[in-house]
């Protein structure tokens, strides 16, 4: 996946400024930045939900325009606040999403059983989603994002609502998903999550990738970078 010179402003507020990122197959890339850095905006640009002002995004030789439906087949997306249909059961929800994504009928049943089992939702398969906890809803949202086995999985602030055993499971599930040649691109503001899940981390600050880390031990620098940046910004204002 290539993010090339992506620039985005909302009105006169510049949010992304010439962002360049290349993520290889099999890689988990973390976008680490403080609140308001533009992480969700970049994910929405990759998804085509937000149109960048400049630059391009390419997944498997496909640009977000003009064939968005072809492009979207390659992508799964988990927003920070999952959108689910409360009046469906998790099985009905996954069936609905599978149909939307064009999963072949012959694969649908086994695929959904596998996901419900993997995500420990089999015993709740007949309950309404409205009765689910926040963490269970988030898990179902991840399952829904991968029913069509997308090449790129976009996760906006994953793991934030999971308890320790679910976090452990989810990390191992995502690592395994990437190891099959898929790309995982995730945003977080938590150094710990970035350190334990990602192969590479880019620091998004003031609209640009300030630094990329492969040796994730060095991520301890991140908090100092942010604090120095905020102090410099405050000094400029005063
Ligand atoms: N639709 C929009 N219209 C106007 N401004 C927006 C819109 N979406 C985001 N912004 C602004 O763009 C900036 C970046 O927001 P964004 O949600 O991308 O940041 P983020 O890094 O994901 O933040 P957080 O970690 O708090 O979720 C913020 O100042 C936000 O208010």
TrEMBL record:
* Residue ranges of domain ABC transporter in the record: 1-231
An example of a GO molecular function for this protein is: ATP binding
Look up the domain of life of the source.
Answer: Bacteria
Q: Which PROSITE patterns match?
A: ABC_TRANSPORTER_2 (PS50893)
* UniProt cross-references to SMART domains, sorted A to Z: AAA (SM00382)
Pfam families according to UniProt: ABC_tran (PF00005)
- Is the keyword ATP-binding assigned to this protein? yes
Alphabetized, the UniProt keywords read: ATP-binding, Nucleotide-binding, Transport
Q: Does the keyword Transmembrane helix apply?
A: no
| Protein name per UniProt | ABC transporter ATP-binding protein
Provenance organism: Metabacillus halosaccharovorans
């Amino acid at each position: 996946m290539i993010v090339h010179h992506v620039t985005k402003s909302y009105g006169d507020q510049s949010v992304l400024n010439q962002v360049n990122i290349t993520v290889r197959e099999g890689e988990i890339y973390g976008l680490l930045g403080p609140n308001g850095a533009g992480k969700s905006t970049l994910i929405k640009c990759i998804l085509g939900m937000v149109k960048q002002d400049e630059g391009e995004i390419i997944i498997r030789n496909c640009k977000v325009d003009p064939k968005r439906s072809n492009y979207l087949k390659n992508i799964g997306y988990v927003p920070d606040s999952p959108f689910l249909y409360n009046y469906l059961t998790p099985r009905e929800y996954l069936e609905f999403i599978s149909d939307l994504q064009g999963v072949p009928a012959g694969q649908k049943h086994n695929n959904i059983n596998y996901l419900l089992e993997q995500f420990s939702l089999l015993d709740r398969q007949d309950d309404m989603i409205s009765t689910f906890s926040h963490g269970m809803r988030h898990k179902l949202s991840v399952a829904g994002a991968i029913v069509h086995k997308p090449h790129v999985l976009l996760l906006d602030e994953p793991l934030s609502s999971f308890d320790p055993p679910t976090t452990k499971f989810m990390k191992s599930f995502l690592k395994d998903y990437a190891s099959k040649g898929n790309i995982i691109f995730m945003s977080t503001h938590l150094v710990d999550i970035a350190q334990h899940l990602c192969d590479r981390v880019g620091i998004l600050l003031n609209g640009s990738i300030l630094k990329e880390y492969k040796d994730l031990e060095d991520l301890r620098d991140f908090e100092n970078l942010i604090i120095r940046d905020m102090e410099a910004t405050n000094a400029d204002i005063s």
